[in-house]
Amino acid sequence: MRHKIIAGNWKMHKNAQETGSFLNDLINEMPEGKEVEVIVAPAFTNLMLATQILEDTNVAVAAQNMHQAEGGAFTGEISADMLTSIGVQTVILGHSERRQYFKETPALLANKVDTALRHKMRVIFCVGEELKDRKSKQFQNVVFYQLKDSLFHLPKEAWEHIVIAYEPVWAIGTGETATPEQAQEMHQFIREQIAHHYGNLADNVTILYGGSVKPDNAKTIFSQPDVDGGLVGGAALNVADFTAIINAI
Ligand code: PEP
After folding, report:
1. Ligand 1 binding pocket includes 234 (Cβ within 6 Å)
2. Structural domain boundaries, residue 24
3. Would the CB of 210 count as within 6 Å of ligand 1?
4. By Cβ atoms counted within 10 A, which residue in 32, 41, 85, 171 is the most buried?
5. Catalytic residue numbers?
6. pTM of the entire structure?
7. Which of 231, 242, 245 is the best mutation target for the ligand 1 pocket, counting ligand atoms within 8 Å of the beta carbon and taking the most?
8. Residue 173 pLDDT greater than 90, yes or no
9. Residue 209's domain is classified under what CATH number?
10. What is the pLDDT of residues 201-225, one digit of tens each?
11. Would you say the CB of residue 199 lies under 6 angstroms from ligand 1?
12. Integer CA distances (angstroms), 96 to 23, 42, 100, 169, in order
């Protein structure tokens, strides 16, 4: 069901002590009475600690990645079963850093999505164009194929477990943000493409914006009609900034 979400992607930041102290501070600072789901995505090694600290709170825990196989000889990898067995029900897939540095292809990502859904996990699926695609006006085309190649094979009922995060690659970690109009244009486009393939359920899909969301730009981005919240990197590493962003929704 479509709802507001603020998710923090911690990437390869914060050890166990830092994770514990951030989360305890976050619990104390969490805004009350806000209709927003808050999610944090720490490193694999700190997921169990995070689920324990956040057990009786309304902050959810997500993994930043997951392997597509059920198990086996894949040294260094983490399976869906390992995640759900410690209470992690959400996974971020398709982040541009996974696509760029780890060569994750649309077909591989489709496989990962299928595995996550088989385990009844929720997927935050990232899409977004590079700067060259924006400059050549191919940005909608690129995002369309990212959706089509990894998600449009899914049956209708699977969409209940899918959240989209639109993250223009040129805005991730660069301080450069899409304008609220650019964000709205793409979010609307994404919703239209989902509607084109699946009909009315598109209205129920949560679509997050990600790319240098900060306390001072969050409100205008979140005020766009098709923007349902944010996937936040850098500003999610600091409790004051993260709570300010939660308050901006
Ligand atoms: C991200 O990595 O998903 C992200 C949006 O990072 P940042 O907010 O730092 O641009």
Report:
1. yes
2. 5-248
3. yes
4. 41
5. 95, 167
6. 0.97
7. 231
8. no
9. 3.20.20.70
10. 999 999 999 999 999 999 999 999 9
11. no
12. 26, 17, 6, 7
